[in-house]
């Protein structure tokens, strides 16, 4: 599960988040219910934070993963399945004629910001994350801190490594992280657990997220057998499984009830919207 905590001055933001979670569960009732935590229950769930926060929320159904391990595992699985990977080679959908002899059956264009010329409204949103080694910290699950500027998370990895993120800045600047961003991330982590004071900074990384005007993903097929997926914003790993199900529905039936359920924008080759 995921733990959500906040400082007293951010209680109003936490209340709004609680309302958003309740609204989401109304739309998707199969989601496990959010559990409100008082100080005693918070101490049971995460003993390391027993004296730090008076209340919190637990999302019991949320999982966690190590993104770098996942990418390595996916690459290995592709290799075992005989998938040919052409690393570090530029490609464009126009290079293929899918469905013809010697060509792939479909082209799935998931280039993110690399497809900016095909998505006029696509923009980059800068994000910075810190990776630290903190032997004194024993958080067992992802912990989110309600923050007035942007969502802050602390994600535990193996061997007391933690990823702290993520800033959210409306620019496609890929320069190194700013002092301000580094201070905000590391100060937030220290405010959650004092053991981060002696953590060692392993890296601070910067990248830009592919984002559409409504901050929601979109799927479209402007030309036959070329399916374009983009705009996953800062939620790629979280929503990718659901988006994969949408893509599979489109590939097999040409329609996606799941997309309509979640108000996901899907366009056919004629640019007719199936879901708005």
The tally of structural domains comes to 2
Q: Would you tell me the structural class of the helices and strands? A: alpha+beta
CATH architecture of the largest domain: 2-Layer Sandwich
Which CATH C-level class of the largest domain is it?
Alpha Beta
Number of strands: 13
Average pLDDT taken over every residue: 92
Strand content: 15-25%
What value does the Rg take, in angstroms?
A: 21 Å
Strand order of the largest sheet: 2-3-1-6-7-8-5-9
Low-confidence stretches: 270-276
Distance between the termini: 31 Å
Tell me, briefly, the overall form: globular
Helix content: 25-40%
The tally of helices reads: 6
Overview in brief:
The chain has 276 residues and is α+β, with helices and mostly antiparallel strands.
Characterize the structure shown:
Strands 2-3-1-6-7-8-5-9 form an eight-stranded mixed β-sheet. Helix content is 27%, strand content 24%. The longest helix has 18 residues, at 236-253. The protein folds into two domains: 2-63 and 123-211, 2-Layer Sandwich (D-Amino Acid Oxidase, Chain A, domain 2), CATH 3.30.9; 91-122 and 215-275, no CATH class. The chain is an alpha+beta fold and 276 residues long. It is globular, with a radius of gyration of 21 Å. The two termini are 31 Å apart.
């Amino acid at each position: 599960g995921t733990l959500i905590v906040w400082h007293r001055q951010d209680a109003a933001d936490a209340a709004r988040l609680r309302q958003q979670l309740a609204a989401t569960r109304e739309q998707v009732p199969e989601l496990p219910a959010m559990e409100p935590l008082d100080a005693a229950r918070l101490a049971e769930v995460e003993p390391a934070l027993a004296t730090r926060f008076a209340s919190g929320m637990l999302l019991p159904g949320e999982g966690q993963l190590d993104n770098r391990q996942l990418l390595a595992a996916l690459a290995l699985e592709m290799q075992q399945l005989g998938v040919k990977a052409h690393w570090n080679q530029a490609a464009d959908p126009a290079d293929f004629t899918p469905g013809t002899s010697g060509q792939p059956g479909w082209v799935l264009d998931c280039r993110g910001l690399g497809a900016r010329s095909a998505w006029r409204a696509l923009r980059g949103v800068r994000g910075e994350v810190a990776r630290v080694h903190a032997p004194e910290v024993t958080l067992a699950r992802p912990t989110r801190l309600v923050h007035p500027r942007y969502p802050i998370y602390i994600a535990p990895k193996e061997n007391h490594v933690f990823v702290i993120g993520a800033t959210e800045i409306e620019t496609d600047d890929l320069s190194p992280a700013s002092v301000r961003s580094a201070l905000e991330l590391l100060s937030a982590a220290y405010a959650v657990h004092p053991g981060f004071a002696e953590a060692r900074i392993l890296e601070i990384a910067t990248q830009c997220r592919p984002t559409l005007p409504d901050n929601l993903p979109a799927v479209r097929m402007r030309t036959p057998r070329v399916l374009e997926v983009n705009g996953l914003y800062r939620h790629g790993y979280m929503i990718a499984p659901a988006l994969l199900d949408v893509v599979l529905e489109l590939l097999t039936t040409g329609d996606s009830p799941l997309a309509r359920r979640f108000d996901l924008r899907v366009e056919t080759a004629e640019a007719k919207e199936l879901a708005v």
